[in-house]
Amino acid sequence: MKRIGVLTGGGDAPGLNAVLRAVVRTAERAYGAEVIGILDGFKGLLDGRFRHLCGPDVRELIRMGGTVLGTTNRDNPFACPGEDGPIDRSDECLENARKAGLDALIIIGGDGTLRIAADLGRRGLNVIGVPKTIDNDLASTDYTFGFWTAIDTATEALDRLRDTAESHHRVMLLEVMGRHAGWIALHAGIAGAADVILIPEIPYDPHSVAKTVVRCQERGRASSVLVVAEGAMPRGGEMAVVAVDPTTGVKRLGGAGERLARELEALTRCDVRVTVLGHLQRGGSPVAFDRILATRFGEAAVHVAMEGRFNRMIRLADGRIEDVDLDEAVRETKLIDPRGLGGPLLKTARALGIAFGDE
Q1: DSSP alpha helix (H) spans, 138-279
Q2: Residues that are catalytic
Q3: Torsion sign, CA atoms 51, 55, 60, 64
Q4: pLDDT single digits (tens) 138-163
């Protein structure tokens, strides 16, 4: 292995640059290999836009948010926009990788990006996957980098909102990311002492949420703080959607917090204010845990590539860095199951008196 490529795909997450730094430093110092960065995700691979990365390029990256390579959300080489519908341009990816002399390609991304990586692996590209998502919903790894930074950001927001809620006797509602899984909402809600946490895995009853708010008032508290994942939905209802991509059919979520706020105002006559944390969760300097995890992932990815073991994904399992079959790694989404996975943390939250709108 003389030349390794690296690509970042999907939404940005704190720690992406730390992975790049680890890949470059490990490849150069341990193996004397070159690292080629692909700009703007799979779009850059299709267009042949590459950048050589060396030690000085990555010296300060461990503390920086975002990705110096750039990234795109919706560019799938197997379904590129065409005049008569989606077209498969994956052959161009393989050809450009060959022309660049890439012996292997490390692809850093979430479930969508890694599914594309697995498909490219089946086409003959030597790929290694590195899991990245602030939602922490990849089933084959204990944690993904960026997750704990997002929790830290959400927890700080809750602390600030509580100050305002208590000062103005209001109900403050914080909407956080979490399309299908409520890991951010659950962790931040416990850390931020929320009164209510609503997650996609547990459909809620607005009347139950309203009763919790009223109960807080009856106990002498004129304020309440709620955390709502963007994918949370009422019983018998659907996710709050603001738009649908006409090409991919992917739904852009938004409005879960506002929907609940209007319902609560009607049921309780309280003043409810909504804060949507949005992309603030993605940016900023990664916390120490995410820096270390991202560094361990990047280093391990290079070693696995150099050993010639491809179509694998790096993961964290009980504190150990391992690798797993890439197809297996993206097969399932890691959800919070009140009866199984995530149950202990839910039990803790309920014991503390936090409501989930299902009582």
Answers
A1: 147-168, 183-191, 206-218, 256-268
A2: 135
A3: positive
A4: 999 999 999 999 999 999 999 999 99
